[in-house]
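Recap from last week: sequence in, structure out.
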Amino acid sequence: MRRGHFIRELAESGCYLKRHGKRHDIYAYPVNGKQAPVPRHPEIKETLCQLIRKRLGVCKSANLETQS
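Predicted structure tokens:
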């Protein structure tokens, strides 16, 4: 999955960029206060996207599933 698409998906779920790291950006989900690092690679594997979603406690948007 393209990184930009994944970031857009996180933003639509309510996550926001908390801070920049050296090689990762830290995203937070204000509903439960959880945080997860997101790498700055142009392409992120789907398994890693699932792990980040799980760490943040967000589900994949049904809205985005129909668009893909």
